[in-house]
Every structure is written in structure tokens, then in C-alpha cells.
Write a structure and sequence with these properties.
The complex is a heterodimer of chains A (293) and B (92).
Chain A: H1 15-22, H2 26-32, H3 50-64, E1 72-76, H4 82-89, E2 95-100, H5 103-110, E3 117-121, E4 133-139, H6 152-169, E5 170-183, H7 193-199, H8 208-215, E6 219-226, H9 228-244, H10 246-253, H11 255-274, E7 277-286
Helix pairs in contact in A: 3-4, 6-8, 7-11, 9-11, 10-11
Chain B: H1 5-20, H2 40-54, H3 62-65, H4 69-79
Helix pairs in contact in B: 1-4
Classes of the chains: A alpha/beta (293), B mainly alpha (92).
């Protein structure tokens, strides 16, 4: 088990900005997330509980990335490690490597002391693997890969850099499975200032067309689904979990932080309900013979 | 008006008159929320405050599916415990 500090980030949100959101305290998130502490949209196809929906989502990405039974899998934005655990415990993966910008999340994963799991506190931009990966999965991290002050061409450039890095790190013919929130009918100017300033500082959402453009001729998109209503359902569970355990949550982080989270979860629920935001799950296959760019 | 709707409707008219600083008479319960200039933060704020006041769980997206005071209150009333004679109590 190793923890490595990051050197720098460039076009995406800084480590400080990401920590602003995720390092409020592991115990606080445990109050309203499911037992696996998975902080991203579940897959509700027939699932009855939040945990079931989260596990279905993890299994879905493992399947789409063809990760089961492989040697090495990279999880970009590994959160509290639910996918890393699933990869080694259920999918027979020998080595699962997670990247996060949150010290708290890395410490949580390290505490498991599982030799099959490594966690690095570094940006994907600084990642320098010695060996190729057999699959890459990234759930709920892409939202932080471009800062809001970038011009449209720079945004696509930042995302393209990500896809080129994944291409470089993957073995021939391997797969990448990505899950991200994307703009639907809304654009940045339509987002509530509260969300922009307090919840996700220094981050902007992608559009589907930016993702398509950025991955063009590097990866082929083989499967795409928009599950925005699954995110509404997931958020609903988180919101009512938080409200049901409000007193305990206030003890952990204070009244203002809890009120801010209630507001954020509500506004996101509305965003997915109305289609202002989408939830994309996209499977990509590495194009091995790259043409001249 | 079915049982349970009135106290909710009254609470909402009172809430919005204070929030918007207008008289209760100016609030038409059949007008869409966006007519009052309420943005998404104001709507989810109202839903949360109403949940606290009545001690019930109200979905924050409800105001988007039932976009007037009248329709919203009717929908909430359907969620309330339906024991005959029970009055809806508003938390202090």
C-alpha cells in the first residue's frame, strides 16, 4: 500500500478545490451514503436499495471495461475505494490502482491494507505508470477535469489530453468505461451560483459533443447511455438519508454545512429531473492504430 | 377542497408573502411558481421548509411536477396520514 503526493494539476480543478468538497470528513458522508460509501450515481435497473444500485453500477463498469479477471485495472477518481474493493474481491482482478486528490479518501483506502490495492494521491495528469493497464474505469471524476475559465477549444484540449493519456496507459484493444455528469439543456450560465461557488469550485461540466470531439480517433465509442433519472433517484436517497440523520450530521460538520448539502442535493435532483443535466455512461475501445493527427 | 389541503395552502401563501414581501391577497394559488419569479433555489428551499414545518418528507422536485400552490398542496395532502378527524399540525 502506498500513498504518493501529487506535484501539480493544470487544466482541471486543483487538489485544494477537490478537497474543499470531499474532505469534509469521511464520517459525514457515511451518514447519508450507502455502506460502500460510493459517491456517484447508481444504476437502478430493478435495484431495490441504494447499495444494490451502487453495486450494479460498479459491476456495469467492470463489464463494460472488460476488467474481470485481468491483471491491472486503473480507477481514476477512486473515492473511498468501493470500485477497487469490488475489482479485487468480486471481479478477480490481481492489482487495482486508484487515483484520488483527497487525502482523507486515500487514508481510508490505505487502512484496509490490502496488497492487491494501491492508492495514489495524484492527478491523472501526473500519473506515470510503469506497466500498462488492462482496463480503466473512471466514475464521477471527469467533472473536475476542466476549469470554468477555459475557452471551448481549451476544454476539448484538456479532455483530449485525458483520452490520450488513457490510450498510452492501456494495453492494445483494451477498454475505458467512463461515467460523468454532463450538461443537458443547461449551460454554465444557467447553473445556480450556489453550486458553482460552494459545491464545485474550479470545476465545469462537459457536454456530450466535447467528449465525442476529445476522444475522436483515439477511442471508439461503443456504448452510451444517459441515466439522468437514475441520478435523481440516487440523490433522493442521499437527501432523505441526510434529513433522517440530520442531528448526527450537524454534530459532525455543523448546521451551515448540512444546510448547504441539503440545498445542493435538492438542486441537483431538480437538475436531473428537468434534464438540465445528464448522467452519461460511455464505453470506449482503444483504437490501436492511430492515424496521423 | 379535500381535507389536509387548506393548512398546506395557507402555509405556502404565508411563506411566499413573507419571502416575496407582498400581501397575501396578491398571491393567486392557481398561478405557476415561475410567475412569482421563484428560482430553483427558492423552490427547493420552500419544499425543505415545508417538510420541516409539517414533519413530512417532500420530494424537492415536486414543485416542478405540480407547479402551482393549489396543485402542490393537493399533492402533499395525498401524502399525509389519512386518519379521519386528524388535523395537520404545523411545527412552531
Amino acid at each position: 500500500m502506498e500513498i504518493v503526493e501529487d506535484r501539480q494539476t493544470s487544466l482541471g480543478a486543483s487538489k485544494r478545490a477537490v478537497q474543499h468538497h470531499y474532505d469534509l470528513g469521511t464520517e459525514f458522508y457515511a451518514v447519508w451514503l450507502d455502506k460502500t460509501r460510493t459517491y456517484s450515481c447508481g444504476l437502478w435497473d430493478g435495484a431495490h436499495t441504494l447499495q444494490e444500485a451502487q453495486e450494479r453500477k460498479l459491476d456495469y463498469h467492470i463489464e463494460r471495461a472488460n476488467a474481470a479477471g485481468t491483471q491491472r485495472v486503473l480507477d481514476i477518481g477512486c473515492g473511498w475505494g468501493s470500485l477497487l474493493n469490488r475489482l479485487v474481491d468480486k471481479a478477480g482482478v490481481r492489482q487495482a490502482v486508484g487515483l484520488t486528490l483527497s487525502d482523507g479518501q486515500a487514508q481510508w483506502i490505505s487502512a484496509r491494507a490490502d496488497p492487491r490495492i494501491s492508492v495514489l494521491v495524484e492527478s491523472w495528469e501526473d500519473h506515470l505508470p510503469q506497466t500498462k493497464y488492462d482496463a480503466i474505469i473512471s466514475i464521477g471524476a471527469f467533472e473536475h477535469f476542466a476549469r470554468p475559465d477555459l475557452e471551448s477549444a481549451e476544454v476539448v484540449g484538456a479532455y483530449r489530453k485525458f483520452f490520450l493519456k488513457c490510450h498510452e496507459w492501456l494495453a492494445p484493444g483494451a477498454w475505458l468505461s467512463l461515467q460523468t455528469i454532463a450538461y443537458g439543456t443547461a449551460r454554465r450560465k444557467d447553473l445556480n451560483r450556489f453550486i458553482v461557488e460552494h459545491i464545485f469550485p474550479e470545476s465545469d461540466l462537459p457536454t456530450l459533443s466535447e467528449i465525442a470531439l476529445a476522444s475522436d480517433r483515439v477511442f471508439e465509442i461503443t456504448f452510451l447511455r444517459n441515466d439522468r433519472l437514475d441520478y435523481e433517484t440516487t440523490l433522493k436517497h442521499w437527501y432523505f438519508n441526510l434529513r433522517a440523520n440530520k442531528a448526527g450530521a450537524i454534530e459532525l460538520v455543523g448546521e451551515e454545512a448540512v444546510a448547504n448539502y441539503e440545498k445542493y442535493l435538492s438542486l441537483f435532483m431538480v437538475g436531473f429531473h428537468t434534464g438540465a443535466m445528464n448522467l452519461l455512461r460511455i464505453a470506449f475501445r482503444r483504437i490501436d492504430a492511430l492515424r496521423e493527427r | 377542497m379535500s381535507e389536509g389541503v387548506e393548512p398546506i395552502q395557507e402555509w405556502m401563501v404565508d411563506y411566499l408573502s413573507k419571502l416575496l414581501q407582498i400581501s397575501r391577497d396578491e398571491i393567486d394559488v392557481s398561478s405557476p411558481f415561475d410567475r412569482f419569479g421563484l428560482d430553483s433555489a427558492a423552490l427547493v428551499g420552500m419544499t425543505g421548509d415545508l417538510s420541516d414545518a409539517f414533519g413530512i418528507d417532500v420530494d424537492p422536485t415536486l414543485a416542478y411536477d405540480y407547479p402551482t400552490i393549489e396543485k402542490f398542496a393537493q399533492q402533499i395532502a395525498r401524502q399525509l396520514p389519512a386518519r379521519p378527524g386528524d388535523a395537520v399540525k404545523v411545527a412552531a
